[in-house]
Specification:
It contains eleven helices and six strands.
């Protein structure tokens, strides 16, 4: 056990932990804009095993905060890039919510990919011919950020540039970046990945989805009914429901009215 004394402020008493601990970034714990509730709930989600339910209702069953405070904290975490909820349609047609928890803000993934460039030594002041600059590529940032999901997927800059065209194929076929990351990072083998670039190249090639079919022109029918309202995520149970604006589904509103 280590104790480091200070004349004022906090004194840390640290004991070596060999198990049952979670590594949480200071970017989350010390974020200047996040409330203490959001920091605590974000850290709690980081400590949960992969696949644990983290809906508002599931968190309210395990935490002392109520559903309203938990929903507000999750919105804060989403606003600053530590939490992401996306809607997906299953083959059965059911719409579900998929949740991603980030140990660093999502914007930091691109910054991490640019870190070697930012750390390069300053160029001499002698005149040099101007060089064309390229905008940051989404495919390269996606590949460089894979190591934040699994440390075995660390790629060299050369590997990132070599695999970037394969990622571009996925994006050009209408696959969202989050779906590309999920295809590359889920169901990873338990054994060490000795050659991550070759492993990812195989996945990108073998799992490449087909092109989206061309839309079939439909004759305009002025008598057709109006389009249904868009899907919203219920702030009470996170179930998908149709509405013109965010809020709670009919069942949650009914429970609230009965409770009142």
């Amino acid at each position: 056990m280590k104790t480091r004394h200070s004349h004022s402020g906090v004194t840390h008493v640290k004991e070596r932990l060999d198990g049952n601990f979670t590594v949480v970034s200071n970017e989350l714990l010390q974020h200047p804009e996040l409330s203490s509730t959001a920091r605590g709930i974000g850290s709690y989600i980081q400590s949960l095993p992969e696949g644990s339910p983290v809906s508002i209702k599931a968190l309210a069953e395990r935490l002392p905060e109520g559903e309203i405070r938990i929903a507000s904290a999750l919105r804060e975490l989403e606003r600053y890039g530590f939490h992401l909820r996306t809607k997906e349609r299953l083959p059965s047609g059911q719409v579900v919510t998929r949740t991603f928890s980030y140990n660093r803000p999502r914007g930091a993934v691109v910054e991490a990919a640019r870190a070697p460039e930012l750390a390069a030594p300053a160029q001499p002041k002698a005149p040099v011919p101007p060089r064309a600059t390229k905008a940051p590529r989404k495919d390269a940032g996606l590949l460089a950020g894979l190591r934040t999901y699994d440390s075995r997927l660390v790629l060299s800059e050369r590997d990132v540039l070599r695999l970037a065209p394969a990622v571009s194929q996925w994006l050009e076929r209408g696959v969202p970046p989050t779906a590309v990351v999920r295809a590359l990072t889920t169901d990873l083998p338990q054994d060490p990945i000795k050659h991550p670039a070759a492993f990812l190249a195989h996945r990108l090639a073998s799992r490449l989805p087909p092109h989206l079919p061309a839309p079939v022109p439909v004759p305009r029918d002025t008598s057709a009914p109006a389009r249904p309202d868009p899907f919203q995520t219920c702030e009470g149970c996170e179930r998908a429901f149709r509405s013109t604006r965010p809020g709670r589904c009919r069942d949650c509103r009914a429970r609230s009215e009965r409770a009142a």
